[in-house]
Amino acid sequence: MKARFAAAGFAAMALLASNAAFALDELHKKYACTACHADERKLVGPAYMDVAKAYTNAKDPKYKGDRAKAVAYLSEKVRKGGSGVWGPVPMPPNATPTDAEIKKMVESILDMAKKAPAKK
Ligand code: HEC
Question: Considering all CA atoms of the chain, what is the largest pairwise distance in Å, rounded to the nearest integer?
Fold first, then answer.
């Protein structure tokens, strides 16, 4: 009996932990970003968590953690595609989402940095 409660508690905790870092909302699925991106591991493109950490870091040489500038840059990058920041593989342009949708997706990626469990 006791063991069963413990197992249920553990499952609930695992569920909470996985919800804590969650950028893969409906928009990311709708526009097939998830074919190339996952929250916490590299697929074809970089992990969203790594993007979030890079662009919210005050020591980032380009944006210095300036969220508005990072959102503007990343939104344009998602729209037009491109390569060379994370490696030689290009991201194709994304023509279908509206500007507002792209902004929302980019913001949800950057927000992952706040929710990331402290590892260091
Ligand atoms: C066919 C695969 C593919 C798809 C689909 C894709 N991406 Fe990417 N994405 C990449 C690759 C590859 C990179 C790395 C580009 C680079 O190194 O400059 C990347 C980079 C990014 C970056 C970081 C850009 C930077 O300059 O640091 C963001 C943010 C991003 N993608 C968001 C999205 C969103 C949102 C979508 C859906 C609308 C999407 N991606 C769809 C492959 C993809």
Answer: 57
pLDDT digit string (tens) for the chain, length 120 residues: 556 666 665 555 555 544 445 666 899 999 999 999 999 999 999 999 999 999 999 998 889 999 999 999 999 999 999 999 999 999 999 999 999 999 999 999 999 998 765 554
Pocket of ligand 1 (CB under 6 A): 31-33, 35-37, 44-46, 51, 74, 77-78, 82-87, 89-92, 94, 97, 105-106, 109
Q: The pTM is what?
A: 0.84
Helices within the chain (DSSP H only):
2-20, 26-30, 48-55, 67-80, 99-115
Among 30, 50, 27, residue whose Cα is nearest residue 39: 50
Enumerate domains of the chain plus CATH numbers.
2-115 (1.10.760.10)
Expressed in angstroms and rounded, the spacing between residue 45 Cα and the centre of ligand 1 is 5
Query: What token pair was written down for 95?
Result: 């023509």
